[in-house]
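Methods, example record. To illustrate the input and output format used throughout this study, we show the complete record for Cell wall endopeptidase, family M23/M37. The sequence lines were provided to the predictor; the line carrying structure tokens was produced by it.
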Amino acid sequence: MTKARAAASAAAGFTLALLAVATPPGLAQEGVSADMAARQSEAETRQAELRDRIDALQKDIDARESARKEAADALRESETAISRINRRLDELATQRKQAGGELERLEDAIVAQNKELGVRREELAAQLRTQYASGLSPWTAMLSGDDPQEIGRNLGYLDYVSRARADALARLQRELQRLSDLQQAADARRAEIQKVETDTGAQRDALVAQQRTRATLLAKLDGQLSAQRSEANRLDRDNQRLSRVIGDLEKQIEAARKAAEAARKAEAARRAEAARKAAAAAEAARKAEAERRAQAERDARREAAARAEAARRADEATRARMAAEDAARAREAAQAAARAKAMEPSAEERVSAVKEPIRGSAQATLPPAGGFKGLKSGLTPPVPGQVMARFGSSRPEGGVWRGVLLKAAEGAPVKAVAAGTVVYADWLRGFGNLLIVDHGEQYLTVYAYNQSLLRRVGDVVRAGEAVAAAGSTGGQVDSGLYFEVRHRGAPVDPYQFISR
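The corresponding predicted structure is encoded as:
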């Protein structure tokens, strides 16, 4: 083997070795399927529709109650504003946490990307050094005076080297672009975090102002509130008001269930039709591919016959042996290049992860496909406080308790006892900031007297997730949580479901 051939072989071997090195995996992607994206969009649409229905229901409640004014009504605007601000602070905290985590991930990715750039630059430099050391070029191969067959092989190796260098340059350019994308995404996250912190400060200032306003109103209305708490018929009015709200909610829930069922049937029919069309298209594509392959096989047979005839006429054993060796090397090089190319993720795939927007806490969460399954025994209480009044016990102002009153510190987290959908989140006379969760199978849980509501109508909540903060709204004296369980509109003992 001549010096030129040896150098070419070394260069080609080094290039193939570099191509065989796997590119480190990019950022992990949380790929969302098309079906999941469609369900997410459907959930957001249903959430918006449910909120519109509950808004209309709230307006109807306000119209019915406008004829009677109570002292607690003066607190409504302030208590509602406090609830709204606290919910916004909760959302901002979640958004800040998500943005901070994303920024840390981006900064780690930038460090890793800089290391990867160093590897790519060294790879390219090694290829250039190897070719320079070999002294191989098209002109030196042609002017070497070697056997023409050997020159052909050397030029083939040189072609592999050139393609490998072009691939290395392309990879280097992609890595540089990805680094630029990562840095832009990191800058965007920093700007988002700064905006969140500014918004958080403004919301906290507004919260302090509203708390002062409420304290002033409480002091001013103290006498009126005390007098109204002693009214014997006030409790009946409050209970009737809540029962009407729950009755209206159940009608809305049933209407939404029927609409969702109709939508599911329509979607099933659409998917069946789409599947039929896809199957027909796939069959047509299969036939076309089979025909293409048959034609390719015929062409390959003709080409093979022509090559066999040429080899027979050549009648040179040494040339045939060398040609076989060259063909084997070419196949190995092509396979190595194909493996390296296949293992390298595209720039679009790797950059897509860093361009995924951060979703805030207001995003619609998907309910389970079959809906929620109601309540079961052994649930955790919404707050761990002392029981101040039990279901069915007498109330000082007359009547009986239809739920339980739990002692809880101001601002203590109130947690959903089971998974479900928020169907009411507003201020209601006699109950203050009120939140109602639908658990399916006609089971509802009621959380009243809250300082603030942390979830909105349409939000899907998990068991144990904080949905409100305990308080004393609606004209109550002490901070606590009033909790009810309703089944088919009727109140039932919560301790049938929650552990003591």
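Annotations derived from this record:
The first strand starts at residue 387 and ends at 389.
The chain has two domains: 3-24+35-230+322-355, 387-496.
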